[in-house]
Design a protein that fits this description.
This protein has 17 helices and eleven strands. The protein is an alpha+beta fold. The protein folds into two domains: about 1-205, GAF domain (Beta-Lactamase); about 210-295, Arc Repressor Mutant, subunit A, CATH 1.10.10. Strand 4 (about 155-165) and strand 5 (about 170-180) form a beta hairpin. The N and C termini lie far apart (about 65 Å). The relative contact order is 0.09. The mean pLDDT is about 90.
Length: about 400
Protein backbone atom coordinates (compact mmCIF):
# COMPACT_ATOMS: atom_id res chain seq x y z
CA UNK A 1 0.00 0.00 0.00
CA UNK A 2 2.79 2.39 0.96
CA UNK A 3 4.60 1.55 -2.27
CA UNK A 4 1.49 2.31 -4.38
CA UNK A 5 1.10 5.64 -2.57
CA UNK A 6 4.72 6.45 -3.40
CA UNK A 7 4.13 5.67 -7.09
CA UNK A 8 1.03 7.89 -7.16
CA UNK A 9 3.03 10.74 -5.62
CA UNK A 10 5.74 10.18 -8.20
CA UNK A 11 3.19 10.53 -11.01
CA UNK A 12 1.84 13.76 -9.49
CA UNK A 13 5.31 15.22 -9.22
CA UNK A 14 6.15 14.32 -12.82
CA UNK A 15 2.89 15.94 -13.97
CA UNK A 16 3.86 19.15 -12.15
CA UNK A 17 7.17 19.08 -13.99
CA UNK A 18 5.34 18.52 -17.30
CA UNK A 19 3.10 21.54 -16.72
CA UNK A 20 6.02 23.78 -15.78
CA UNK A 21 7.17 26.20 -18.49
CA UNK A 22 10.75 25.73 -17.43
CA UNK A 23 12.49 23.41 -15.01
CA UNK A 24 14.91 24.66 -12.39
CA UNK A 25 18.25 22.89 -12.01
CA UNK A 26 16.91 21.24 -8.85
CA UNK A 27 13.75 20.04 -10.60
CA UNK A 28 15.76 18.72 -13.54
CA UNK A 29 17.93 16.80 -11.09
CA UNK A 30 14.83 15.32 -9.40
CA UNK A 31 13.44 14.30 -12.76
CA UNK A 32 16.78 12.91 -13.95
CA UNK A 33 19.09 14.56 -16.44
CA UNK A 34 18.56 12.00 -19.20
CA UNK A 35 14.74 12.34 -18.98
CA UNK A 36 15.01 16.14 -18.84
CA UNK A 37 17.23 16.20 -21.94
CA UNK A 38 14.88 13.81 -23.73
CA UNK A 39 11.87 16.02 -22.92
CA UNK A 40 13.73 19.01 -24.34
CA UNK A 41 14.54 17.12 -27.56
CA UNK A 42 10.97 15.83 -27.81
CA UNK A 43 9.48 19.33 -27.47
CA UNK A 44 11.61 20.60 -30.34
CA UNK A 45 10.84 17.61 -32.60
CA UNK A 46 7.42 18.83 -33.82
CA UNK A 47 5.67 15.56 -32.88
CA UNK A 48 1.93 15.71 -33.69
CA UNK A 49 -0.05 16.43 -30.50
CA UNK A 50 -2.64 13.80 -31.39
CA UNK A 51 -0.12 11.00 -31.98
CA UNK A 52 -1.19 7.95 -29.96
CA UNK A 53 0.86 5.23 -31.66
CA UNK A 54 4.30 4.84 -33.16
CA UNK A 55 4.44 5.00 -36.97
CA UNK A 56 4.69 1.57 -38.58
CA UNK A 57 7.53 0.92 -41.00
CA UNK A 58 6.02 -0.30 -44.25
CA UNK A 59 9.14 -1.62 -45.98
CA UNK A 60 10.88 -3.12 -42.99
CA UNK A 61 14.67 -3.08 -43.14
CA UNK A 62 16.52 -6.13 -41.94
CA UNK A 63 18.48 -5.88 -38.72
CA UNK A 64 22.08 -7.13 -38.79
CA UNK A 65 22.11 -10.87 -39.48
CA UNK A 66 23.94 -11.52 -36.22
CA UNK A 67 21.09 -10.05 -34.17
CA UNK A 68 18.38 -11.80 -36.20
CA UNK A 69 20.08 -15.19 -35.80
CA UNK A 70 20.66 -14.62 -32.09
CA UNK A 71 16.97 -13.83 -31.57
CA UNK A 72 16.01 -17.12 -33.23
CA UNK A 73 18.17 -18.91 -30.66
CA UNK A 74 16.76 -17.18 -27.59
CA UNK A 75 13.19 -16.29 -28.66
CA UNK A 76 11.59 -18.99 -26.49
CA UNK A 77 13.42 -17.77 -23.37
CA UNK A 78 12.33 -14.17 -23.99
CA UNK A 79 8.72 -15.20 -24.68
CA UNK A 80 8.68 -17.12 -21.39
CA UNK A 81 9.92 -14.03 -19.53
CA UNK A 82 7.18 -11.89 -21.12
CA UNK A 83 4.45 -14.37 -20.17
CA UNK A 84 5.67 -15.00 -16.62
CA UNK A 85 6.16 -11.32 -15.80
CA UNK A 86 2.96 -9.99 -17.43
CA UNK A 87 5.12 -7.78 -19.65
CA UNK A 88 5.77 -7.11 -23.30
CA UNK A 89 9.35 -7.71 -24.44
CA UNK A 90 10.58 -5.93 -27.57
CA UNK A 91 13.91 -5.82 -29.38
CA UNK A 92 14.74 -2.72 -31.40
CA UNK A 93 17.45 -2.15 -33.98
CA UNK A 94 19.95 0.71 -33.81
CA UNK A 95 17.36 3.08 -35.27
CA UNK A 96 14.74 2.31 -32.56
CA UNK A 97 12.50 0.26 -34.88
CA UNK A 98 11.14 -2.89 -33.23
CA UNK A 99 12.29 -6.02 -35.09
CA UNK A 100 10.87 -8.63 -32.67
CA UNK A 101 8.39 -8.66 -29.81
CA UNK A 102 6.54 -11.03 -27.51
CA UNK A 103 3.67 -10.04 -25.25
CA UNK A 104 1.89 -11.46 -22.26
CA UNK A 105 -1.87 -11.80 -22.49
CA UNK A 106 -2.25 -8.84 -20.08
CA UNK A 107 -0.21 -6.44 -22.25
CA UNK A 108 -0.99 -7.64 -25.77
CA UNK A 109 -3.92 -5.35 -26.54
CA UNK A 110 -2.18 -2.29 -25.06
CA UNK A 111 1.01 -3.05 -27.01
CA UNK A 112 -0.83 -3.44 -30.31
CA UNK A 113 -2.83 -0.24 -29.82
CA UNK A 114 0.35 1.89 -29.64
CA UNK A 115 2.31 -0.21 -32.18
CA UNK A 116 4.76 -1.51 -29.59
CA UNK A 117 5.37 -4.46 -31.88
CA UNK A 118 7.37 -5.49 -34.93
CA UNK A 119 7.66 -2.57 -37.33
CA UNK A 120 6.87 0.12 -34.74
CA UNK A 121 9.24 3.09 -35.07
CA UNK A 122 10.12 4.39 -31.60
CA UNK A 123 12.66 7.05 -32.51
CA UNK A 124 12.56 9.99 -30.12
CA UNK A 125 11.85 12.47 -32.91
CA UNK A 126 8.78 10.43 -33.90
CA UNK A 127 7.17 9.53 -30.55
CA UNK A 128 9.16 11.47 -27.97
CA UNK A 129 10.63 10.22 -24.71
CA UNK A 130 10.64 6.43 -24.33
CA UNK A 131 13.05 3.92 -22.77
CA UNK A 132 13.90 2.06 -25.98
CA UNK A 133 15.14 5.20 -27.78
CA UNK A 134 16.70 6.66 -24.63
CA UNK A 135 18.79 3.56 -23.99
CA UNK A 136 20.15 3.73 -27.53
CA UNK A 137 20.80 7.47 -27.22
CA UNK A 138 22.73 7.13 -23.92
CA UNK A 139 24.02 3.59 -24.61
CA UNK A 140 23.03 2.79 -21.01
CA UNK A 141 20.14 1.07 -19.27
CA UNK A 142 17.11 3.35 -18.99
CA UNK A 143 13.81 3.41 -17.15
CA UNK A 144 10.94 5.67 -18.24
CA UNK A 145 8.09 5.76 -15.72
CA UNK A 146 4.46 6.55 -16.51
CA UNK A 147 4.01 10.21 -17.56
CA UNK A 148 7.73 10.64 -18.11
CA UNK A 149 6.78 9.27 -21.54
CA UNK A 150 6.02 11.97 -24.09
CA UNK A 151 2.97 10.30 -25.71
CA UNK A 152 -0.10 10.41 -23.45
CA UNK A 153 -1.20 6.98 -24.74
CA UNK A 154 1.65 5.30 -22.81
CA UNK A 155 1.38 7.28 -19.55
CA UNK A 156 0.05 4.08 -17.96
CA UNK A 157 3.28 2.26 -18.83
CA UNK A 158 6.65 1.80 -17.20
CA UNK A 159 9.47 0.69 -19.50
CA UNK A 160 12.94 -0.69 -18.81
CA UNK A 161 15.53 -0.93 -21.58
CA UNK A 162 19.15 -2.01 -22.00
CA UNK A 163 21.47 -1.90 -25.03
CA UNK A 164 22.47 -5.16 -26.74
CA UNK A 165 26.23 -5.16 -27.24
CA UNK A 166 28.10 -7.47 -29.59
CA UNK A 167 30.43 -9.50 -27.32
CA UNK A 168 33.30 -9.35 -29.85
CA UNK A 169 33.11 -6.01 -31.67
CA UNK A 170 31.64 -4.15 -28.63
CA UNK A 171 29.32 -2.33 -31.04
CA UNK A 172 25.73 -1.65 -29.96
CA UNK A 173 23.59 -3.89 -32.20
CA UNK A 174 20.21 -2.94 -30.78
CA UNK A 175 18.18 -2.59 -27.60
CA UNK A 176 15.80 -4.72 -25.53
CA UNK A 177 12.80 -3.26 -23.70
CA UNK A 178 10.52 -4.74 -21.02
CA UNK A 179 7.25 -2.85 -20.45
CA UNK A 180 4.29 -3.19 -18.12
CA UNK A 181 1.78 -0.91 -16.39
CA UNK A 182 3.10 1.72 -13.96
CA UNK A 183 1.32 0.08 -10.98
CA UNK A 184 3.72 -2.87 -11.42
CA UNK A 185 6.84 -0.70 -11.37
CA UNK A 186 9.69 -2.58 -9.70
CA UNK A 187 13.14 -1.31 -8.78
CA UNK A 188 14.51 -4.58 -10.20
CA UNK A 189 13.07 -3.82 -13.64
CA UNK A 190 16.34 -2.47 -14.99
CA UNK A 191 18.18 -5.57 -13.81
CA UNK A 192 15.59 -7.68 -15.62
CA UNK A 193 16.17 -5.72 -18.85
CA UNK A 194 19.93 -6.14 -18.47
CA UNK A 195 19.42 -9.86 -17.87
CA UNK A 196 17.40 -10.12 -21.09
CA UNK A 197 20.15 -8.23 -22.95
CA UNK A 198 22.67 -10.73 -21.58
CA UNK A 199 20.51 -13.62 -22.89
CA UNK A 200 20.69 -12.15 -26.39
CA UNK A 201 24.41 -11.47 -25.99
CA UNK A 202 24.99 -15.09 -24.91
CA UNK A 203 23.17 -16.22 -28.07
CA UNK A 204 25.42 -13.91 -30.08
CA UNK A 205 28.48 -15.41 -28.42
CA UNK A 206 27.26 -18.93 -29.11
CA UNK A 207 26.76 -18.28 -32.82
CA UNK A 208 30.04 -16.40 -33.12
CA UNK A 209 32.13 -19.51 -33.46
CA UNK A 210 34.33 -18.90 -36.50
CA UNK A 211 33.47 -15.18 -36.40
CA UNK A 212 35.47 -12.60 -38.35
CA UNK A 213 35.13 -8.92 -37.51
CA UNK A 214 36.81 -6.23 -39.61
CA UNK A 215 37.37 -2.63 -38.56
CA UNK A 216 38.27 -0.38 -41.49
CA UNK A 217 37.57 3.15 -40.24
CA UNK A 218 40.38 5.17 -38.57
CA UNK A 219 42.77 2.35 -37.57
CA UNK A 220 42.09 -0.95 -39.35
CA UNK A 221 41.99 -4.22 -37.43
CA UNK A 222 40.79 -7.80 -37.84
CA UNK A 223 39.43 -9.97 -35.03
CA UNK A 224 38.93 -13.71 -35.46
CA UNK A 225 36.90 -15.41 -32.72
CA UNK A 226 37.50 -12.40 -30.53
CA UNK A 227 41.29 -12.35 -30.92
CA UNK A 228 43.18 -9.63 -32.80
CA UNK A 229 45.12 -10.97 -35.77
CA UNK A 230 48.41 -9.34 -36.74
CA UNK A 231 47.95 -8.61 -40.45
CA UNK A 232 49.54 -6.50 -43.15
CA UNK A 233 47.49 -3.68 -44.72
CA UNK A 234 47.32 -5.76 -47.93
CA UNK A 235 45.80 -8.75 -46.10
CA UNK A 236 43.19 -6.49 -44.48
CA UNK A 237 42.37 -5.07 -47.92
CA UNK A 238 41.84 -8.59 -49.30
CA UNK A 239 39.48 -9.53 -46.47
CA UNK A 240 37.60 -6.25 -46.85
CA UNK A 241 37.07 -6.87 -50.57
CA UNK A 242 35.83 -10.40 -49.89
CA UNK A 243 33.53 -9.13 -47.12
CA UNK A 244 31.99 -6.73 -49.65
CA UNK A 245 31.64 -9.56 -52.19
CA UNK A 246 30.21 -12.47 -50.16
CA UNK A 247 29.34 -14.36 -53.34
CA UNK A 248 33.09 -14.88 -53.87
CA UNK A 249 35.61 -13.84 -56.52
CA UNK A 250 37.88 -15.57 -59.01
CA UNK A 251 41.61 -15.08 -58.61
CA UNK A 252 41.75 -12.79 -61.65
CA UNK A 253 38.82 -10.65 -60.48
CA UNK A 254 40.29 -10.33 -57.00
CA UNK A 255 43.67 -9.39 -58.49
CA UNK A 256 42.03 -6.64 -60.57
CA UNK A 257 40.02 -5.35 -57.59
CA UNK A 258 43.11 -5.27 -55.38
CA UNK A 259 45.89 -4.09 -57.69
CA UNK A 260 44.18 -2.59 -60.75
CA UNK A 261 46.84 -1.81 -63.36
CA UNK A 262 49.78 -2.17 -60.97
CA UNK A 263 52.38 -4.69 -62.04
CA UNK A 264 51.94 -7.35 -59.39
CA UNK A 265 52.07 -11.02 -60.32
CA UNK A 266 49.23 -13.48 -59.78
CA UNK A 267 51.72 -15.59 -57.82
CA UNK A 268 52.09 -12.81 -55.23
CA UNK A 269 48.34 -12.79 -54.65
CA UNK A 270 48.28 -16.61 -54.42
CA UNK A 271 50.92 -16.43 -51.70
CA UNK A 272 48.85 -13.83 -49.80
CA UNK A 273 45.78 -16.08 -50.00
CA UNK A 274 47.73 -19.06 -48.71
CA UNK A 275 48.94 -17.07 -45.69
CA UNK A 276 45.43 -15.79 -45.00
CA UNK A 277 44.01 -19.31 -45.12
CA UNK A 278 46.54 -20.42 -42.49
CA UNK A 279 45.75 -17.41 -40.28
CA UNK A 280 42.00 -18.09 -40.47
CA UNK A 281 42.30 -21.79 -39.75
CA UNK A 282 41.10 -22.76 -43.21
CA UNK A 283 38.10 -20.41 -43.14
CA UNK A 284 38.96 -19.11 -46.61
CA UNK A 285 37.44 -20.90 -49.57
CA UNK A 286 38.75 -21.01 -53.13
CA UNK A 287 37.13 -21.38 -56.57
CA UNK A 288 35.74 -18.82 -55.91
CA UNK A 289 37.73 -17.13 -53.15
CA UNK A 290 35.37 -16.32 -50.26
CA UNK A 291 35.31 -16.03 -46.47
CA UNK A 292 33.76 -19.14 -44.89
CA UNK A 293 33.50 -17.66 -41.38
CA UNK A 294 30.62 -15.42 -40.22
CA UNK A 295 31.58 -11.88 -41.22
CA UNK A 296 30.71 -8.62 -39.48
CA UNK A 297 32.39 -5.27 -40.16
CA UNK A 298 32.00 -1.64 -39.14
CA UNK A 299 31.69 -0.62 -42.80
CA UNK A 300 28.96 -3.22 -43.44
CA UNK A 301 27.08 -1.97 -40.37
CA UNK A 302 27.46 1.63 -41.60
CA UNK A 303 26.04 0.59 -44.97
CA UNK A 304 23.09 -1.16 -43.27
CA UNK A 305 22.46 1.95 -41.14
CA UNK A 306 22.36 4.14 -44.26
CA UNK A 307 20.06 1.65 -46.00
CA UNK A 308 17.66 1.92 -43.05
CA UNK A 309 17.90 5.74 -42.90
CA UNK A 310 19.71 5.77 -39.53
CA UNK A 311 22.06 8.70 -40.07
CA UNK A 312 23.16 8.97 -36.45
CA UNK A 313 24.23 5.32 -36.28
CA UNK A 314 26.06 5.60 -39.61
CA UNK A 315 27.98 8.69 -38.47
CA UNK A 316 28.97 6.99 -35.21
CA UNK A 317 30.31 3.98 -37.10
CA UNK A 318 32.24 6.10 -39.60
CA UNK A 319 34.81 7.13 -37.02
CA UNK A 320 37.48 8.00 -39.58
CA UNK A 321 38.43 7.58 -43.23
CA UNK A 322 37.73 4.12 -44.65
CA UNK A 323 41.13 2.45 -45.33
CA UNK A 324 42.75 5.85 -45.86
CA UNK A 325 45.96 4.50 -47.44
CA UNK A 326 44.47 1.91 -49.77
CA UNK A 327 45.35 2.00 -53.47
CA UNK A 328 42.86 -0.70 -54.40
CA UNK A 329 40.62 0.68 -57.19
CA UNK A 330 37.69 -1.38 -55.89
CA UNK A 331 38.02 -0.11 -52.31
CA UNK A 332 38.65 3.49 -53.40
CA UNK A 333 35.48 3.40 -55.51
CA UNK A 334 33.48 1.88 -52.63
CA UNK A 335 34.82 4.55 -50.24
CA UNK A 336 33.80 7.33 -52.66
CA UNK A 337 30.32 5.84 -52.87
CA UNK A 338 30.00 5.58 -49.09
CA UNK A 339 31.19 9.16 -48.55
CA UNK A 340 28.71 10.38 -51.15
CA UNK A 341 25.86 8.53 -49.42
CA UNK A 342 26.93 9.90 -46.03
CA UNK A 343 27.03 13.45 -47.36
CA UNK A 344 23.59 13.02 -48.91
CA UNK A 345 22.24 11.72 -45.58
CA UNK A 346 23.80 14.68 -43.75
CA UNK A 347 22.10 17.20 -46.06
CA UNK A 348 18.77 15.49 -45.38
CA UNK A 349 19.28 15.27 -41.59
CA UNK A 350 17.19 17.42 -39.25
CA UNK A 351 18.76 16.47 -35.90
CA UNK A 352 21.09 19.33 -34.93
CA UNK A 353 22.49 17.45 -31.91
CA UNK A 354 23.61 14.57 -34.15
CA UNK A 355 25.30 16.95 -36.60
CA UNK A 356 26.95 18.94 -33.80
CA UNK A 357 28.47 15.74 -32.39
CA UNK A 358 29.76 14.85 -35.87
CA UNK A 359 31.33 18.29 -36.35
CA UNK A 360 32.90 18.06 -32.87
CA UNK A 361 34.63 14.85 -33.99
CA UNK A 362 35.37 16.04 -37.53
CA UNK A 363 35.62 19.87 -37.71
CA UNK A 364 36.54 19.57 -41.40
CA UNK A 365 33.16 17.97 -42.24
CA UNK A 366 31.99 20.88 -44.41
CA UNK A 367 28.75 19.13 -45.42
CA UNK A 368 27.68 18.88 -41.76
CA UNK A 369 28.73 22.49 -41.14
CA UNK A 370 26.65 23.71 -44.09
CA UNK A 371 23.63 21.68 -42.99
CA UNK A 372 23.88 23.07 -39.44
CA UNK A 373 24.04 26.61 -40.82
CA UNK A 374 20.80 25.85 -42.70
CA UNK A 375 19.07 24.36 -39.64
CA UNK A 376 20.10 26.67 -36.80
CA UNK A 377 18.52 30.10 -36.18
CA UNK A 378 20.74 32.93 -37.44
CA UNK A 379 20.83 34.58 -34.02
CA UNK A 380 22.11 31.39 -32.36
CA UNK A 381 25.77 31.75 -31.20
CA UNK A 382 26.67 28.38 -32.75
CA UNK A 383 25.27 29.49 -36.11
CA UNK A 384 27.41 32.62 -36.01
CA UNK A 385 30.48 30.62 -34.98
CA UNK A 386 30.01 28.13 -37.84
CA UNK A 387 29.55 30.89 -40.41
CA UNK A 388 32.65 32.71 -39.14
CA UNK A 389 34.79 29.56 -39.20
CA UNK A 390 33.56 28.58 -42.66
CA UNK A 391 34.51 32.03 -43.95
CA UNK A 392 37.95 31.88 -42.30
CA UNK A 393 38.57 28.46 -43.87
CA UNK A 394 37.66 29.75 -47.32
CA UNK A 395 34.28 27.95 -47.44
Amino acid sequence: MAEMKSLIEKRKQIEQFRQSNSLSAQHAEQLGQSIHNSWRRSHSAAIPKDRIAAPLQQDRQQAPDALQHALKRCADDLKHIAEQSSMVVAVGDVGSTIIWSASSRQMQSAAESVHFMQGGQWKEELVGTNALALSLKTQQSSCVFSNEHYMASIHDWVCYAAPIIDPYSKQVLGVIDLSTTWQHHNSLGLLAAERCASIVQAALLEQHQQQLYIRAFASSQVLFNGKILVMTPRQIEILTILALCPQGMTLDTLHQALYGERKVSIGTLKAEMSQLRDMLGGMLGSRPYRILANVEADFLQAEQALDAGYTESALKLCSGVFLAKTESPFLCAWRDCLESRLSDAIFKADETDVLLKHVARFPEAIDAVERLIELMPKQHPVHQYLVRNKTLNGG
